[in-house]
Design brief:
Elements (H helix, E strand, L loop, with lengths): L2 E8 L7 H17 L4 E3 L13 H4 L6 H13 L2 E9 L7 E9 L2 E7 L20 E2 L6 E6 L6 H9 L4 E5 L7 H15 L3 E4 L2 E3 L4 E3 L3 E3 L5 E4 L5 E8 L2 H8 L2 H4 L6
Parallel strand pairs: 1-2, 2-3, 7-8, 8-9
Antiparallel strand pairs: 1-14, 3-4, 4-5, 6-7, 9-12, 10-11, 12-13
Helix pairs in contact: 1-3
């Protein structure tokens, strides 16, 4: 696969309003696939936001309503979806996971539980304990998934790159006023790992934060191929996957690493 058409579904997320959020996400996703998107990325906890007032009502299992609807869409259109939901921690009655999901053609091909909860999230969410790429089944493609705050941890993206990710994906509710930080980190993670990066953020207002959007899609050199403003939008771009090999051959960062000194 030399090229892949990707989309970031940059949307507003209404806190605790699962039906409205899912309907909007699917409508925007329909627009994306009609324009040729094969890989669609949604914001962090896109179906509920951080619904701290009703975590129990927002949480789902892998067999819940959100995943069922997303599975139906993915199967219908033969596409790849990446998103996260609030998952009930079955071993802890009072805690949850921020569960990242990757679907291909209707099937769950990989999950990732956010390993670095941010501030208030720590009161509600258990941290995951595994970071590894997600290998698709039908397509020759590996996704490196990280969630929001983790864009600040270069170790996460580097581990995903070292373990064979073809595309780095960050799903986020990254709040204002940190737009310059968000964009700088998104580009930096791409440059230092010589990997294309889809960084998908939300817009709108939450309980105590506002969100600027600013989703970006970069190539393996860190060049911004598509960038969103602060409105809801389907951000589309075509990624050239073979550029990664070219960049790494010409600027051999990975070959020149001396990890025993680090």
């Amino acid at each position: 696969m030399d090229f892949i058409n990707v989309a970031c579904i940059q949307m507003d997320v209404l806190e605790c309003n699962k039906p409205t959020n899912i309907s909007k996400a699917i409508a925007m996703a329909e627009e994306a696939v009609l324009k040729g998107a094969e890989l669609l990325v949604f914001p962090e906890v896109f179906s509920t936001g951080f619904c701290y007032l009703d975590m129990e009502g927002s949480a789902e299992s892998l067999k819940g309503n959100t995943l069922a609807k997303m599975s139906d869409f993915s199967k219908k259109h033969g596409c790849i979806l990446v998103f996260s939901i609030i998952e009930k921690n079955m071993s802890n009655d009072s805690a949850y996971y921020n569960l990242g999901v990757c679907m291909e053609d209707g099937d769950i091909v990989g999950i990732y539980r956010k390993t670095h909860p941010f501030k208030r999230e720590k009161q509600y969410f258990s941290p995951g304990d595994t970071i590894c790429p997600i290998v698709l089944k039908r397509r020759d493609l590996t996704i490196g998934l990280q969630i929001c705050y983790e864009i600040r941890f270069p170790e996460v993206a580097r581990k995903l790159a070292l373990e064979g990710s073809d595309i780095l994906v960050t799903i986020a509710e990254f709040p204002a006023p940190r737009q310059n930080i968000w964009k700088s980190l998104a580009i930096a993670r791409s440059i230092e790992n010589q990997i294309p990066h889809i960084a998908c953020n939300r817009v709108g207002n939450g309980y105590d934060s506002s969100f600027f959007g600013g989703s970006v899609i970069t190539d393996a050199l860190g060049n911004v191929g598509a960038e969103a403003g602060d409105e809801e939008v389907v951000l589309l771009h075509q990624l050239e996957l073979e550029m990664t090999s070219y960049v790494r051959e010409n600027i051999p960062v990975f070959k020149d690493r001396r990890p025993y000194l680090y």
